[in-house]
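Before relying on records like the one below, remember that each one covers exactly one chain. Contacts with other chains, cofactors or solvent are not represented anywhere in the record.
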Amino acid sequence: MKTSRLIAALIAILIVAGGAYTWQTMFAGGNYGTKNVAIGSIATTTADQACNGKLDHERLVCLADALKTTLSPKLSAEIQLPYTVADAKSWSNFPPAGYNNRVGPTLDKFTPDQLGFIKEMLKTAAGIAVNEGYDEMEQILNADDYLKAKTTDNAGFSSGNFHIAFLGAPAAQGTWELYFGGHHMAFANTYKDGKLIGATPSFRGVEPFTKFNQNNRENQPMAQEQGAFAAMLTALDSAQQTKAKLSQTFTDIIVGPQNDDAFPSLHEGVLVGDLDATKQALVIRAIETYVRDVDAKDADVIMQKYSTELGRTSVAFSGTVGMNTENDYVRIDGPSVWIEFSMQPGRSLPGIHPHSIWRDRASDYGGNK
């Protein structure tokens, strides 16, 4: 077993056993970058000028090509990799101390102008809605800088330790994935012949969960997800809540990194098709807080599919309906869509923090499993 997977297994044992831990207690050392990139302050003038007038996938290809012309041979070889499902699956929610198998260079290896190209790629692929997509990414990266400043954990916290890679060459024809991730983040947009064919797995988490200031802005990137789930569950009447309540306690998401096939065989919970239109709209809103983490045009297509499947989609939870207490857990389980949200104890700071995952049963990794 690789070291990072052994560490993950040990942590899982501690969680199941109810043992409290922090990254400080788990790791005695590590050689990780410490350079914060503060991506929100990175200028994109050079990138904008290079790809002015280009939109959507054409803009992504232009930005990737322009970025690669500025890279050293070593960095170019690190960021541009062949497309393989094995590399696409090499993501995790752990910081570098807990998982060291990510592909691609880290952000701290790039110059400010090069980071400007990367920033514009993320904005193009993920969209620029407030508290969604790129904006949510920026806040999650800010959280890692906050953890580095506020803790003594030697886990590799830092926005500079997030990885980016092109799996397959960005081009008008062929299959490629924009791979981006690090602690509490996995973004995996897969394209084929210029069209998005998969936006999952998509992992989001953050510590601290409460509002914090970092890198000249206020951050609370997952408040709207928590609020949407709480509104959805609170709206259920007592009989519907009873039907939606799971008997098991969940201490984390179940279909997480390296657990691609862990979907339960049973669809538990209350069927959304049995809810009235107002309650169904709240389910749609909860789903949108994940799907809107990709650009608007592609998100509209995905939401159209999920809306047609809504009647066959289930909602289930354990813990409280407020989704604001340790071990609160909720899932949305449809023919295609799968979303989990799990409230965890604090690992590096007091309090609670969420882990969550959006998957698509048909199009995870672009359907290439």
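The chain has two domains: 3-32+41-208, 223-367.
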